[in-house]
Amino acid sequence: MINIRSFISKPNFVVFIVLISIIVIGIIGIPFGDPRFIIYAIFLELTYIVLATLIAMDYKKPLYICIFLALIIIIGNSFVSAHIHRILTLSRPINTIVLIIGGYVLQILLIYSSLLTIRSKNSSK
C-alpha cells in the first residue's frame, strides 16, 4: 500500500488534504448546480487539482494562490443572491449543504492551513 504522507512534506499535508476535500465536494456538487455554470465549475475543479499537485510537489507560491482563490470563492458566494436565498431557506438541501461545506467551511480551512504552512516554512529558514 502506498503511503501518501511519505510523498508530501509535513507542512503541506494539511493543505493537500483540504484541497482534495474541496475537489471531492466539488465533484459531488457539480451535478446539483446550475447547468449554465458547469464549464466554470469544471475549470475551478481543474484549478484545485493543479494546486493540489503543486502543493504535493512542495512548491510555496501555490499556497498564496490558495489563499487568494479561497477569498474570491467566499466573497463571490456571499454576493450571489441565489446562494444567500438557498442558505437562508434551505430550498435545495443537498445543494445548500454542498455550498456551505465547499464554499465556506473548506475555503476557510484552506486559508487557515495555507497561512500556517507559509508561516511554518518561513520559520524553518
Account of the 3D structure:
This protein is mostly helical. It is built from six helices and no strands. The longest helix is centred in the C-terminal third of the chain and has 31 residues.
SS-based class: mainly alpha
What is the succession of H and E elements? HHHHHH
Overall morphology: elongated
Helix content: over 70%
Whole-number tally of structural domains: 1
User: What kind of assembly state do the chains in view correspond to?
Assistant: single chain
Separation, N- and C-terminal Cα atoms: 33 Å
Mean pLDDT reading: 90
**Rg, Å, rounded:** 15 Å
- Stretches where pLDDT falls below 50 for ≥5 residues? none
Tell me the total number of β-strands.
0
What proportion of the residues form beta strands (DSSP E)? under 5%
Question: How many helices does DSSP assign?
Answer: 6
Short description:
By secondary structure, this protein is mainly α.
List the helices and strands and how they pair.
Blueprint: H1 4-7, H2 10-29, H3 38-56, H4 61-79, H5 81-89, H6 93-123
